[in-house]
Design brief:
Elements (H helix, E strand, L loop, with lengths): L7 H7 L6 E4 L3 E5 L9 E5 L17 H12 L4 E4 L15 E5 L9
Antiparallel strand pairs: 1-2, 2-3, 3-5, 4-5
The structure holds guanosine-5'-monophosphate and zinc ion.
GO molecular function: hydrolase activity; nucleotide binding
Organism: Neohortaea acidophila
Catalytic activity: adenosine 5'-phosphoramidate + H2O = NH4(+) + AMP
């Protein structure tokens, strides 16, 4: 089986594995992380399969950050981290490029 055929994120794009989809366009897909670091932790991925940022053509990368921004605005996340890991030493577990959008709880949450 090719790497692409066995890739869990390619299967999520095709709907062969269920996901909580938050965005889809011709070149981009976004869904909630199955093991979230915080409420609303989302992953934004190119539909083009490639393990690392350096494997993906530029025209499949252009929407990733704007979509992460869209999710931040739509969810009202005021503080958040954007993270993208490349390689095992850099803590990459899934070999299909993905941007993590990790909201921080709003400052007022949990107070009072
Ligand atoms: P990495 O360490 O490769 O940057 O992060 C991979 C992320 O993918 C992890 O946060 C993990 O929870 C998430 N993940 C792995 N498998 C699945 C899955 O089948 N569905 C979803 N929604 N997220 C997944
Ligand atoms: Zn893939």
């Amino acid at each position: 089986m090719s790497r692409m055929a066995s890739c869990i994120f390619c299967k999520i794009i095709k709907g062969e594995i269920p996901s909580m989809k938050v965005f889809e366009s011709e070149k981009t897909f976004a869904f909630l992380d199955i093991n979230p670091l915080s409420a609303g932790h989302a992953l934004v991925i190119p539909k083009h399969h490639g393990a690392k940022l350096t494997d993906i053509p530029d025209d499949s990368l252009t929407e990733l950050l704007p979509v992460a921004k869209k999710i931040a605005l739509a969810t009202g996340a005021e503080q958040f981290n954007i993270l993208q890991n490349n390689g095992r030493m850099a803590h990459q577990l899934v070999d299909h490029v993905h941007i993590h959008m990790i909201p921080k709880p709003n400052e007022t949450e949990g107070l009072g």
